[in-house]
Amino acid sequence: MDSKKVKWLIFIALLFIIGGGFLAYCIQTAGNTIKIKDVRFVGSDGRINSALLYIPPGVSSKNPAPGIVATHGYINSRETQDGFAIEFARRGYVVLAMDQSGHGFSDPPAFAAGFGGLDSLKYMRTLDIVDPNNIGLEGHSMGGWASVIAAAVNPGGYKSLLLASSSTGTYGAPEGTAIFPRNMAIIFSKYDEFSRLMWGVDVPRDIVKTDKLKKIFATTEDVEVGKLYGSLEEGTARKLYQPNIIHPRVHFCTESIGNAIEWMQMTLTGGKDIPPGNQIWYWKELGNFIAMIGMLLLLFPLGALLLQNNFFKELNESTPEKKSLKGFSWWIGAIITVLIPLPLFIFAITSHGKGYQAGSALWPQNITTTIMYWALFVAVISLVLFLLWHFIFNRKNATFVNYGVTWQDKGIAWKKVGKSFLLAAIVCFFAYLTVAFSGWLFKTDYRLWVFAIKPMTALHFRIFLSYLIPFAVYFLIIGIILHGQLRRGKEDDLKTWQEMLINIFLLITGYIIFEAFQYAPLFAGGALSIPDASLFFIVMFQFFPIFTIAALISTYFYRKTGHIYTGAFLNTMLITWIIVAGQATHFPV
Length: 589
Prior knowledge:
The protein is α/β, with parallel strands linked by helices. Helix content is about 50%, strand content about 10%. It folds into two domains: about 30-280, Rossmann fold, CATH 3.40.50.1820; about 285-580, no CATH class.
């Protein structure tokens, strides 16, 4: 890549970052009319809580507006609620989109103080720009439990409540009755993965038949979707919405967001009479996505530019002679690589949060810890199989030079390994600066649906360092497999983009198969294949962008340096950062 092309690509990447961020900002502020403040407030237990406060135009202490506390679900963050928050704010509601305890920028541990719902409602009621007698609660998934707990502790502090993909009577949330919570609507999709946890049935659409829901709706018949039950004036109103989506789509769907708008317009006084179908939030998501593409694009020309520097120039080496699997043997190796992670994934999640995977001061994020152990299991099995193949079948034909691990006549050149690490760190640091810049200037991060790239707090950075070595082991070994054992074609014939596609195929195909296995019976009108693993199959949705990014980075820098190190180190830093910043912290560090 010549210098002129490198500079143009850097310019294009920065244009995407700034242009996407500006688009997101314009949409979430409705053309710079809605003010968005990044607020911190002290909770009842002394923890610091984080939230985004959306203030519509014309709202002041002399002209207070209705308010809505919007609470995200487990392992999400405040900006996950942006669809709800933007549309509520456009209609004149002051919105407090909180980070649950232990999530985002709120202090750990997760689940503390009623998931943070108690303190968020309390804080909302202290704002002189909010009518304290006109407050709604909206919560997605675990955020619904936070809302129910807040409603129970402060029964006079809210006017209506919306449960999105959630329930009463779960994980500390009080049971619902015909009169509690006040004026409650439920959005529970026809393909929600948590119907067993939330309502005690495996088939989501069957919640209408449950005694639990009938009790809340004060009926002995099956609950009718879309029918208004009870009385708005008496506070006993009930309504069920059932969109044709899955659990994590409820905060990323015009229909469900429209349902929420309709309910708040019915139950809160004031605000603008903008129809529920009039929505713009998805343009912000497009802006966030464009900015994310810009950041990821920046990694490649920036790395190429640094490799032209005299300090890093010695890392520029051609790829070694290919001594990998061939023909039918390659397909056997590819199938094994695709399938190895799947049973190990099930094995890892069976110990999630307990035993050797219990939260600790060293590794305080339960889900990150489970993913870490799974990655190490995959790495160890993959390495053992690779070494057996090398020493039994390929030892006479190849050395570790051919796998991009060592250097000819030098073994492992530690100076070059160190420079590879430094190069990766510089590239990752500049990528991080872009998301920190977007957060400061535009009050946004990079995201698309369940996948987000967020800034880290000082605590996140400390946690990031603790997980770095285990994930480095994984990406180094995966680099050996991809570029040593499973390299395809002649270097003259196979272009970089073709090798990237092959490696993407190797890293994500197994998860496509696994997700299809899990969801096929659900979409056919039944239950999930493994209902108890619903959370981790939702987590797995993030594997598709993560491993696509990993394949692109690993392949590009292997082609540039002839060794696995730069790509493996950059993947380790980038993906550990993404996972840690986006996960809940369970141990009270």
